């Protein structure tokens, strides 16, 4: 009984402790009686300090509040946006309450008070340098060349998605024009905050947002503390290699502001860094090609940095002043003095129609010295209604080289290869309403008084003199009309090139001295229509070109024709996963092989060139198509590409022979080349160790005609290529990369040979220390079918003492490999090149930043 | 639809406008991107646009500005790439383009639109429930508004928030909702995420939504996985994107992988 009584008492006490008030009711609009939903109902103490319960009215304007407080009375608040709040002081007991709220325009009391590593927004991809740099990166170019989509070729030219970039900006200003290598090879990584890739970049302000473009640009943004004051970087290093002392000095000083930019560089080294690449430019005012040359200048990528023994000096001065918002004036100048020493050996088997073979073996010991002075002045107005740019440039190049030849020929050849150039480039664009008009003009004059001396010893000397004066004029006018999704553009372009060349040989044993003038006029009328649909973009261009070519030597030669060169481009986004793109084009114009002169010229002591006697013409049709699939959920990417091209030409070039001299001949001959190739690329990102894998497989076939020594050969070349790349980051401080590439070539009636290359790189970052090691292994199949192996191992260590001082040690070519052998075939001839390399080199460097 | 901006400027808006907000609140958003570097915080301004009918939108303030400038450039439902760039430049640096729409596409739902590096994703879920417990004893005044404190739990984090019933909307920055007033201040119990209101303005402005046709329709889990991949292996994601081609032969980067400290832990 006592137990039961206890239970009853307990239940009463629990009820009294947990007794709760339940408030229910409805809220209406006082003006029309409508029930109001989403009204906030709160219960607080009388002062409004403690909140006991809250609820919102439902769709029928009803609310229910449960109060777990012992307070005698409470404050009930009803509030909703757009209504005057209501307060009710009530006894704390269960009850039903009806409330009406009056509409009100009372507004809230206003109170106004005081990153990711890669960001892709619109057409700009911003890479935070801190996130994408590696500790062994020295200059900003080292980072740029690793960015996705960017390719930097051996001369430093930057391409994005296979297209050269149109501008390189520093803090949004174009200080260096096309010679941006000065910046990429000199501005230290630590001075830069971000690198931006600007896709669809329209350089002219007035076209922005109006004229679509597929051009890309790169902008580097300096760190805030590196602007508005003189900053710089000085590196000095010393080391040993190839039985001599190696030195290097890199200095840069800059002062970058909003309205003025100044950049100076001073560099010198004999450690293998060619400074001519800093000031090389591949467009516009590039240096004219030399008329004479000791050897064909091409080195395989795998060994390009190791083939030259150099001593280089470069000084540059660049200054940009911006006055007003849109106007800027800039001055760029440089002086380059570069000596280079190369050694290589060519072993060539030339095959004739009767299957006999001419074997030639030559060993070159080449010394080269370039001294170049260049200055340019540029004024630009980039306004929203007008664009005006004028650029004037002068250049003098004093180049000399000598070559000691051994093997099939034994002689010394010396070249004197100066060139002088002056030019002006003008661009004026303005708009009237919906119409845009553009006038462009380019005038360039160059003069090349060059000569080569060939000394076989015992008074047997031959001197080839060649002079060229070349005037190039290019004027164009464009009108553009845009409306809705359509764009219509009409271009009119007139290009003229006048080339006056002369040659004479001393003593005159081959041909009498000769003088000729080639003139080419080209008139292009190019209407282009573009339609930008939601998922489809179509471009149709139908340029009509008129060519007028004339040649004046002893007799005169003229030709004149009109061609139509349609081009069709389609890009179609099928859905979020699939995309299709295709380009079809037809081109008809003067042959790229046109060399119209009737004389035989030495280009060097062992090779000559013989011009064609008539004009050549090429007609080419090509189609490319690619289909892309991408699933971002599992990071799987795949692309299929197909490429077909066919070219008909009436001019062919090939080799003829005079003893062991090769003669490059240009022969009138109707022939056809065609090629078909396909490739498949697949990429997959795995979460395991953040591993990314890429595989590319490709196959192609090419049918072509080859001319040699009076005979024509019909050939087919098939090739296969594969590439496997794996990048992985097992930990924060360790990164690894492996790439395997194989290229197999089979030539009909010839042999099959393979080239394999394996690259591995590892980077280890531990606090102030960074270690990098890289291995580049090649196995190249040679003429006899055996493989020549080659391994380049490099090691790099860096210690960063503080933000101002750092120390690096670098050892290149640790295995001291001195020869690289590459075999290639062009259809009928076999080439084997041996490149002699710089040996093991160790260099220590100290760098100071201010 | 016409959108009224402050200063009564009329602008034609495109179909990308969901509605019009009645007022807007700016918040300082501060967060710890890497839990191993606990002194290191990132910070930017965010905007919550609230409409009387319950629809709201929360995003980076610069992202909102960019959208509103872009919309003014849009003609026939299109915007030129360069104009879009110009809008970006004018708007300022966008840190985060994620947008949270509450009570959209219908009442009680939350729609998310956001980027994982290069792709846009969207997912819809029920408005999150935080299981709030109002702490009656604690009060704070923020910008002159009296605020009550509440504590709630959601997605692996405990949230302490201060809300004012003087602004009777059940809303707040990010996914915070369910209290009888606007959340003006919020922080997670680990001290890694902070939202603090810094302005309240009676500005009627358009609530924008990006074209959903370009978005991958996903779930929250799918989006979070893609976002994590973008942070940790951004270069590889870009490389596999098909929009960009890369040559091989260069080592992966040890420092490119960014730490990931998700606001929703589960």
Helix content of chain B: 10-25%
Helix fraction bin of chain A:
under 10%
Poorly predicted runs of chain A: 5-18
Would you tell me the overall average pLDDT of chain B?
Answer: 78
The profile of the biggest β sheet of chain A is: 33 strands, mixed
Count the helices of chain B. How many?
Answer: 4
Strand content of chain A: over 45%
Shape of chain B: globular
Tally the beta strands of chain A: 49
Query: Which structural class is indicated by helix and strand composition of chain A?
Result: mainly beta
How would you explain this protein's 3D organization?
The complex is a heterodimer of chains A (about 850) and B (about 270). With about 850 residues, chain A is mostly beta strands. Chain A is built from 4 helices and 49 strands. Chain B is α+β, with helices and mostly antiparallel strands and about 270 residues long. Helix content of chain B is about 15%, strand content about 40%. Chain B has 4 helices and 16 strands. Chain B starts with a strand and ends in a 27-residue tail after the last helix. Residues about 1-15 and about 245-255 of chain B have low confidence and may be disordered. Classes of the chains: A mainly beta (about 850), B alpha+beta (about 270). Strand 8 (about 110) of chain A pairs antiparallel with strand 14 (about 195-200) of chain B, so a sheet runs across the interface.
């Amino acid at each position: 009984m006592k137990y039961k009584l206890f239970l009853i008492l307990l239940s009463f006490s629990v009820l009294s402790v947990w007794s709760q008030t339940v408030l229910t009711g409805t809220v209406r609009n006082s003006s029309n009686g409508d029930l109001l939903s989403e009204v906030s109902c709160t219960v607080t103490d009388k002062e409004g300090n403690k909140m006991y319960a809250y609820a919102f009215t439902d769709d029928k304007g009803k609310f229910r509040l449960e109060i777990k407080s012992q307070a005698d009375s409470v404050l009930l608040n009803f509030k909703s946006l757009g209504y005057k709040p209501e307060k009710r002081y009530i006894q704390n007991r269960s009850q039903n309450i009806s409330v009406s709220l009056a509409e009100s325009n009372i507004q809230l009391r206003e109170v106004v008070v005081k990153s990711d590593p890669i960001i892709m927004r619109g057409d700009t991809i911003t890479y935070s340098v801190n996130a994408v740099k590696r500790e062994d990166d020295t200059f900003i170019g080292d980072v740029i060349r690793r960015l996705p989509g960017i390719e930097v070729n051996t001369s430093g030219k930057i391409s994005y998605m296979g297209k050269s970039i149109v501008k390189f900006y520093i803090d949004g200003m174009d200080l260096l024009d096309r010679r941006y290598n000065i910046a990429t090879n000199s501005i230290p990584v630590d001075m830069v905050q971000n690198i931006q890739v600007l896709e669809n970049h329209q350089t002219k302000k007035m076209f922005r947002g109006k004229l679509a473009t597929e051009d890309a640009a790169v902008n580097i943004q300096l760190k805030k503390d590196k602007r508005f004051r003189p900053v710089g970087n000085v590196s000095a290093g010393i080391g040993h290699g190839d039985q001599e002392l190696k030195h290097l000095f890199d200095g840069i000083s800059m002062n970058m502001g909003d309205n003025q930019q100044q950049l100076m560089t001073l560099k010198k080294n004999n450690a293998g860094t060619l400074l001519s690449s800093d000031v090389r430019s591949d467009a516009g005012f590039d240096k004219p090609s030399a008329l004479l040359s000791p050897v064909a200048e091409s080195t395989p990528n795998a060994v390009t940095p190791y083939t030259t023994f150099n001593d280089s000096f470069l000084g540059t001065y660049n200054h940009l002043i911006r006055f007003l918002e849109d106007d800027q004036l800039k001055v760029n100048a440089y002086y380059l003095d570069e000596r280079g020493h190369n050694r290589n050996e060519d072993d060539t088997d030339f095959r004739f129609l009767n299957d006999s073979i001419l074997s030639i073996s030559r060993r070159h010991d080449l010394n080269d010295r370039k001294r170049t002075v260049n200055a340019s002045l540029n004024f630009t107005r980039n306004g929203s209604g007008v664009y005006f740019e004028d650029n004037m440039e002068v250049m003098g190049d004093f180049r000399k080289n000598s070559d000691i030849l051994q093997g099939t020929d034994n002689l010394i050849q010396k070249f004197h290869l100066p060139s002088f150039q002056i030019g002006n480039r003008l661009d004026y664009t303005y708009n009237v309403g919906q119409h845009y008009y553009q006038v462009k003009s380019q005038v360039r004059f160059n003069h090349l008084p060059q000569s080569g001396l060939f000394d076989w010893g015992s008074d047997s000397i031959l001197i080839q003199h060649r002079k060229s004066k070349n005037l190039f004029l290019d004027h164009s006018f464009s009108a553009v009309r845009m409306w809705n999704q359509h764009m219509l553009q009409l271009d009119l372009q007139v290009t003229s090139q006048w080339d006056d060349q002369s040659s004479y040989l001393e003593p005159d044993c081959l041909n009498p001295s000769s003088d000729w003038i080639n003139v080419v006029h080209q008139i292009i009328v190019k209407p282009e229509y573009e339609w930008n649909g939601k998922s489809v973009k179509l471009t149709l261009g139908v340029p009509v070109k008129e060519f007028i070519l004339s040649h004046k030597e002893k007799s005169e030669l003229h030709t004149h024709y009109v061609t139509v060169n349609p081009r069709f481009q389609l890009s179609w986004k099928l859905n979020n996963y699939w995309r299709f793109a295709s380009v079809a084009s037809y081109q008809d114009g003067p042959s790229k092989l046109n060399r119209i002169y009737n004389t035989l010229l030495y280009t060097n002591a062992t090779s000559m060139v013989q011009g064609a006697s008539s004009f050549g013409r090429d007609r080419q049709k090509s189609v490319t198509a690619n289909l892309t699939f991408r699933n971002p959920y599992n990071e799987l990417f795949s692309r299929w590409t197909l490429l077909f091209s066919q070219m008909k030409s009436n001019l062919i070039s090939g080799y003829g022979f005079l003893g062991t001299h090769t003669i490059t001949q240009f022969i009138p001959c109707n022939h056809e080349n065609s090629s078909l190739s396909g490739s498949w690329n697949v990429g997959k990102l795995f979460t395991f160790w953040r591993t990314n894998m890429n595989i590319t497989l490709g196959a192609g076939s090419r049918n072509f005609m080859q001319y040699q020594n009076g005979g024509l050969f019909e050939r087919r070349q098939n090739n296969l290529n594969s590439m496997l790349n794996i990048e992985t980051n097992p930990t924060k401080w360790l990164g690894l990369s492996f790439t395997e590439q194989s290229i197999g070539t089979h030539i009909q009636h010839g042999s099959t040979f393979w080239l394999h290359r394996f690259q591995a790189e590892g980077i280890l970052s531990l606090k102030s220390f960074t270690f990098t090691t890289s291995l580049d292994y090649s196995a190249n199949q040679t003429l006899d079918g055996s493989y020549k192996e080659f391994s380049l191992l490099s090691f790099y260590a860096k210690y960063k003492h503080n933000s101002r001082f750092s120390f690096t040690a670098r050892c290149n070519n640790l295995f001291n490999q001195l020869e690289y052998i590459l075999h290639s075939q062009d259809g009928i001839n076999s080439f084997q090149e041996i490149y002699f390399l710089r040996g093991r080199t160790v260099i220590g460097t100290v760098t100071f930043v201010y | 639809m016409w959108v009224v901006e402050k200063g009564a400027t009329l602008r034609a808006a495109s179909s990308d406008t969901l509605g019009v907000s009645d007022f807007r609140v700016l918040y300082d958003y501060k967060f710890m991107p890497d839990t191993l570097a606990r002194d290191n915080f990132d910070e930017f301004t965010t905007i919550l646009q609230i409409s009387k009918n319950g629809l709201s939108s929360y995003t980076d303030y610069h992202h909102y500005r960019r959208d509103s400038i872009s919309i003014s450039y849009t003609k026939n439902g299109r915007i030129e790439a360069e104009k879009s760039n110009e809008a970006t430049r004018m708007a300022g640096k966008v840190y985060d383009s994620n947008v949270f729409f509450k009570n959209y596409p219908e009442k009680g739902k939350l729609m998310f639109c956001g980027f994982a590096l290069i792709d846009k994703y969207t997912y819809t879920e029920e408005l999150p429930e935080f299981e709030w417990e109002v702490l009656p004893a604690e009060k704070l005044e923020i910008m002159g508004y009296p605020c009550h404190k509440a504590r709630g739990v959601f997605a692996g984090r405990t949230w302490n928030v201060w809300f004012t019933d003087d602004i009777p909307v059940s809303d707040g920055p990010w996914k915070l909702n369910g209290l009888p007033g606007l959340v003006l201040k919020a922080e997670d119990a680990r001290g890694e995420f902070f939202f603090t209101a810094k302005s309240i303005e009676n500005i009627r402005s358009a609530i924008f939504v990006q074209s959903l046709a370009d978005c991958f329709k996903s779930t929250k889990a799918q989006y979070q996985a893609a976002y994590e991949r973008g942070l940790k292996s951004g270069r590889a994601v870009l490389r596999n994107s098909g929009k960009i081609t890369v040559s091989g032969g260069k080592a992966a980067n040890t420092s490119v992988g960014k730490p990931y400290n998700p606001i929703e832990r589960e």
